[in-house]
Amino acid sequence: MAVFAVAVLGSFATIATFTFQQARTQDAQKRDLTRTLEAQEQDRTRTLAAQERDRRLERWRRDVQNASDKRERQDELLRSMLHDTVAVYNRVKGIRRRLKAEASDGSEGHISLAAYDKYMRQLIDEQLGFEEFKRLAPFIPDERLRGDGDPTPTPTEEQSHDFLESRYEHIEEYLNEIIGEYEKSRHKVLSRDSISMSEFNWLPGFLGNQFKRDVSGQLREITNLLQKAMLEPLVLPGLDDDDAPRA
After folding, report:
1. pTM of the model
2. In 3D, which of 200, 207, 196, 170 has the Cα closest to residue 182?
3. Cβ contacts of 64 within 8 Å, gap of 6 or more
4. Burial letters for 42-62: b for 16+ Cβ neighbours within 10 Å, e otherwise?
């Protein structure tokens, strides 16, 4: 019986030891599995975060490129508008100077029918140029011309989307008055060799200081606005520091 008891107790001890060791082994395996799964989850999280960062960075680069391309197109349009405007203005100044030279006679000035016809017909073409600018101005897709950033030193009430259009319109309407007078007064010159400048209402002002106020002054505001718009810094889309490209 004693031997049997010892054998039974030994078996129980063996079983207990085996069970304890097996439990420890299983716990270790579970811990290893848990660490492995946690490491895999961390890797997956880092991978997803890196992929999302790359997507944000790519979107940012695309937005920067789109903004740069848009600004380049806008600047090209403004440069073209500025160049064409100054070109038409210079041609009007040329007409004015040549007409003034031919009308000058040392007194109040006289103009012949040939000179009146010649220069007024040229002025009609240039007046149509300013009329075209007036019609195009509202359709320029450029927020820098909308008056949001004090684009010109003009009064606040004039800092609106139609600022550019109103300046072109002022010039166009002024030149139209001179052309309208030509249409109504040509018959006066037709019956004589020449006619005194004092018999006109608008033509003397065109050759004098009125031109500087109604054309040159307006042109200066137009060119100031276009030039300042092109010099305005380009604001690019923002990028978080964490997304910044690494060297």
Report:
1. 0.72
2. 200
3. 236, 237
4. eeeeeeeeeeeeeeeeeebee
Please report the DSSP string for 153-220 in residue order. SS-GGG-STTHHHHHHHHHHHHHHHHHHHHHHHHHHHHTSSEEEGGG-SSHHHHHSHHHIIIIIHHHH
CB 115 within 8 A of CB 102: yes
Would you say residue 181 lies in a domain? yes
Phi then psi for residue 112, to 5 deg, are -90, 165
Q: Look at residue 179 and tell me if it is in a domain.
A: yes
- Domain housing 100: 73-231
Mean pLDDT per 10-residue interval, the chain, length 247 residues: 63 71 82 86 88 89 89 92 96 95 80 92 96 91 66 43 87 96 88 85 93 95 92 83 57
Q: In whole angstroms, how far apart are CA 127 and each of 84, 123, 124, 180, 218?
A: 13, 6, 5, 11, 14
Strand partners, 112: 194
Would residue 235 be called left, alpha or beta, if left means φ above 0 and alpha means ψ between -120 and 50 degrees?
A: beta
Spatial separation of the C-alpha atoms in residues 56 and 64, rounded to whole Å: 12
What pLDDT does residue 24 have? 81
* Token pair 């007078």: residue: 181
Residue 206 has a pLDDT of 94
- The answer to the question of residue 183 being in a domain is yes
